[in-house]
Amino acid sequence: MLTHLRRAAAACGGATSDHFLALRQFSSAVVAVSSVSDSDPTLPSSSDSQRKASRWLLFLPGAITFGLGTWQIGRREEKIKMLEYREKRLQMEPLKFSSAYSSDEELDSLEFRKVVCKGYFDDKKSVYVGPRSRSISGVTENGYYIITPLMPVPNCPDSVSIPILVNRGWVPRSWKDKFLEASQDEDLEDALPSPSHVDGSKSWWRFWSKKPVIEDQVASVTPIEVVGVVRGSEKPSIFVPANDPGSSQWFYVDVPGIARACGLPENTIYFEDTNENVNPSNPYPVPKDVNTLIRSSVMPRDHLNYTLTWYSLSAAVTFMAFKRLRQKNKRRWQSRR
């Protein structure tokens, strides 16, 4: 470039030495800037870092899906251990329930253990939870779980000493309809005035006439043996509506709430009847199948399917990332040629 400037200065006959010196200094500055721009590593290094970052971003979906597949393997192992634990507990001999199991830790130790207890059902305080579907010979029928307090039987040493809640099993929808009709009839009878009110006298006769009847009924009750499993409240999903005790609408098992509705303490024990000896002449309620307690909404085989799905997706997106990088490198190599 300096040679070209000298030739330009020579061609201009009127150019002085000062002009030549100025042109010489300008040409030196141009050469210096060009050399600095060629040797300055800041621009190419920043582009290289951006290029590397974009490469890592291409592999990010594959890494995430691979991690999800690995997480499903761990979940599958946990689910297998949990189901094996439940199965071993359910195969043990049933325990005789005692009121000594009062603390939460003692009740937790009974989880998934079969327990035997005796008492009588207070049917007037039954609660229907549902609707719950049941498939019979390929036909799906809607119904409810019926939960009834099991009350102590006087003068019976084998009876429970405190009331407990028992999920007796599945019943058809007609059971709840009849129960609501009977409850409405009882409420109507209680609302009607008694003959003593019509005469203007007191209604003490109602109190004294009912008490002996209740005592005779309780004394004549034969204790019922219930074989069940101690359970807790259900954990509803976001799609399950909230319970409405005021209108007797129960969509999921809430033990404290059902206990309050039945006039029992909130820490009342809750059983699920698993007795398999069902009377054919009286098939309802249908107790819960024990096998349902060793099943989960997501079984180990489902976790295995999820694992294969995530790993397959990881392999697919990683292959696409490699292919994309290969195309970029190929175009860059061709442009350099």
Automatic annotation (TrEMBL):
Domain of life (superkingdom): Eukaryota
- Where are the bilayer-spanning segments? 56-74, 304-322
Q: Which UniProt keywords apply?
A: Membrane, Mitochondrion, Mitochondrion inner membrane, Transmembrane, Transmembrane helix
Give any Gene Ontology cellular component. Answer: mitochondrial inner membrane
Q: Which PROSITE patterns match?
A: SURF1
Described by its record, this protein's role is as follows: Probably involved in the biogenesis of the COX complex.
Regarding protein family, the annotation reads: Belongs to the SURF1 family.
What is the designated name of this protein?
SURF1-like protein
